[in-house]
């Protein structure tokens, strides 16, 4: 699973089928979608994490990293 976000998504979906609020699977899906280059979908999953656990620190860390990445990308384009 490590390094294969598509395979990871399959396992996260299985866990969420058992417990739809499994916080690490919700968060893991967000990370997997970031790794697949889909930050919009990743943010949807991070929102779900915060709906279940508003103080989840890993989600804020990922948002911060994503924001920094987008900022650097914009600077490099100009």
Can you describe what's shown?
This protein has 78 residues and is mostly helical. The protein has helices at residues 5-18, 23-35, 39-52, 57-77.
Defining key terms:
single chain, 78 residues, mainly alpha
Q: Could you say which overall geometry the principal axes of the C-alpha atoms support?
A: flat
H and E order: HHHH
User: How many strands in all?
Assistant: 0
Between the first and last Cα atoms, what is the distance in angstroms?
36 Å
Strand content: under 5%
Summarize the main sheet.
Answer: none
* Mean pLDDT figure: 83
Instruction: Give the number of helices.
Output: 4
Radius of gyration: 13 Å
* Helix content class: over 70%
> Which blocks of ≥5 consecutive residues have pLDDT under 50?
none
Classify the secondary structure makeup into a structural class: mainly alpha
Quick take:
79% of the residues lie in helices and 0% in strands.
Helix-strand blueprint:
Elements: H1 5-18, H2 23-35, H3 39-52, H4 57-77
Helix pairs in contact: 1-2, 2-3
């Amino acid at each position: 699973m490590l390094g294969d976000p598509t395979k990871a998504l399959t396992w996260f979906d299985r866990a969420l089928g058992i417990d739809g609020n499994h916080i690490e699977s919700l968060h893991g899906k967000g990370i997997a979608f970031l790794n697949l280059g889909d930050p919009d979908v990743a943010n949807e999953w991070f929102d779900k994490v915060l709906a279940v656990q508003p103080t989840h620190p890993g989600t804020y860390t990922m948002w911060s990293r994503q924001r920094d990445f987008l900022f650097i990308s914009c600077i490099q384009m100009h």
